Amino acid sequence: MDEEKGIEQRIENSNSRFYEAFECLSIEKMEEAWKHSDNTICIHPGWEMFTGWTAIRESWTRIFENTRTIKFFITNTKIKTFENIAIVVCLENIDTVIDDENIFRMGVIATNIFEEQNVKNNSDYNSEWLMIHHHGSVVTNYIPPNVSV
Amino acid sequence: MDEEKGIEQRIENSNSRFYEAFECLSIEKMEEAWKHSDNTICIHPGWEMFTGWTAIRESWTRIFENTRTIKFFITNTKIKTFENIAIVVCLENIDTVIDDENIFRMGVIATNIFEEQNVKNNSDYNSEWLMIHHHGSVVTNYIPPNVSV
Question: Which residues are CB-contacts of A95 (< 8 A; sequence separation ≥ 6)?
Fold first, then answer.
């Protein structure tokens, strides 16, 4: 039971790391969150799929270039684990600055899938949960939670 | 290699079964396609998540009641398998009749996740790939393929 809780916490940390990378608009942090593989998939809201890390990295570079400030408040997180695969569903409550004065608030529902990998860390190998799939879609009838992001 | 191809074919068949159930507007066929579990998740385009088979079934009932005719032409299918879990991403090219004369064409990108399950079939147990997760989102800049659905 404690081990299960430990695994769930590590997966939640990997999910948070992805959103921290997005908030920092940092391609280096985004690189750390994802598995660099030809068959990772990323579906941004309203878009078709990007396949493979090279195309996905390029899509994040373009998004970061076109974003001034973005803040995430993650709610409704559901985690399911299957051996070395974890499926996370969560609601991204997003505040984004669109010009000097206006904050735009929106809700995006996300399916994030992570795979447990052995990653070299200095001279040791550690297991890490890396993102292999992201699918985000805008919630049309979004009601923001009654808190500040 | 042949076994891998066999598994991929069975997963593709399960994916097709889901879209056939949708085309038939048949709740019985939809019941056969899904795992009836409290932690299955379904995200319809523009919606928040439905969690658990009871809520998901109810959402399909309502969608079927409000749909006259719908046809799917599935393209760009990508399948990844991990032990007893399969992730399918595909583009749903959809024709739906909105009134007597007008067909509305749209593109929805879907993440469909299946879990291999032992299902009782008469007196035997057979393995089946059942849907545990569906996430669909509308493609904004959709260009339909040059074929009829």
Answer: A70, A71, A73, A103, A104, A105, A149
Q: Which helix (H) or strand (E) holds B59?
A: helix B53-65
Q: Tell me the domain boundaries of chain B.
A: 2-138
ipTM for the predicted complex comes to 0.92
Q: Output the CA torsion sign for A117, A18, B44, A78.
A: positive
Instruction: For residue B73, give both structure tokens.
Output: 């032409």
Nearest-Cα distance to chain B for A29, in Å, is: 25
Q: Which tens digit of pLDDT belongs to each residue from B111-128?
A: 999 999 987 777 888 899
SS3 string, A131-146, reads EEEEEEEECCCCCCCC
Choose the mutation target among A135, A138, A139 for the interface with B, i.e. most B CBs under 10 Å.
A135
Q: Closest partner residue to A46 among B83, B136, B139, by Cβ?
A: B139
- Are residues B78 and A41, on separate chains, in Cβ contact within 8 Å? yes
Domain A2-138 has CATH 3.40.50.620: no
